[in-house]
Amino acid sequence: MTSDAQFDAALDLLRRLPPTAIPTHLNSLTALTPSLTEDLLSSVDQPLNTALDPSTSRTYLLCDYNRDGDSYRSPWSNKFYPPLPAAEEADATYPSERVRRMEVECNAAFDVYRSMYYEGTESEGAGGTAVGSVYLWDLDEGFAGVVLLKKEGGKARGGSAAWDSIHVFEVDERSTRGTTGSSSRTSHYKLTSTVILHLQSSLDNATVKEDGLQLAGSMTRQVEADLNVESVGSLAKDGGHVVNIGRMVEDMEGKMRNLLQEVYFGKAKDVVGDLRSVAPLTGVRRDREMQQNVMASMGR
Prior knowledge:
Order of helices and strands: HHHEEEEEHHEEEEEHH
CATH class of the largest domain: Alpha Beta
Organism: Cyphellophora europaea (strain CBS 101466)
Number of domains: 2
Number of strands: 10
Subunit structure: Component of the F-actin capping complex, composed of a heterodimer of an alpha and a beta subunit. Heterodimer of an alpha and a beta subunit.
GO cellular component, one term: medial cortex
Helix content: 25-40%
Number of helices: 7
CATH superfamily of the largest domain: F-actin capping protein, beta subunit
Structural class: alpha+beta
Family: Belongs to the F-actin-capping protein beta subunit family.
Keywords: Actin capping, Actin-binding, Cytoplasm, Cytoskeleton
CATH topology of the largest domain: Aspartate Aminotransferase, domain 1
Radius of gyration: 24 Å
Shape: globular
Low-confidence stretches: 177-182
Distance between the termini: 67 Å
């Protein structure tokens, strides 16, 4: 089997396995085929882990985009933890000064977004934990970044739940001029969004003990758009990028949230209904026959 065929087979397998177990399965696959390690790690989205920035006491999310060896860069302090060895510090990847300013602004904006839509704090609380992080890096014709959001909760209701959002975007800043001749700058945005959802309910009381029910899955969607970049705040045009990215992520998350609720959970409900009726089937058949008779009499 060629390396391309092995890679496609590995991705096909991972799509069919529970997303909560992806790290374990990835370790097994990379142990079997070490040559695919880099491609798999860069192509497969995993549930997000957290770490604490000791210099700011803020929690941040870990991913391949802020990783250097075994260390991860915090968006709050722009430092790697654990600290990189002196010999490696000079070669570490940091955003340019301009991109770092946008990164700081993005983290402030999505911190507000997190509190609005996810209801939770970075530490364990009644509403569960909700953490967000944004990382940016430079490209030849613009910049790219990732918006990460993680919410865990449901423990107070005797279960557990986790939502991981991974939004990877690229911004091509090659400007175009409007038809009026004025310098209306337009940039091309490409957004790839993945949501990993895991739900587990359990029933454990004095009379009934059950293992519970688990639902898990992931969804990926992509969108591209050419948007005007307006001057916003102290960052001017760069502030416009922050606004455009925020709107695209908000719109995409809303669509994916509705799709999960209306299509996937609705379909699961229909399947359960087909497997076992809530009411006795004799009564259901009788009601259906009465309805058919009424419709037939109205058509005469």
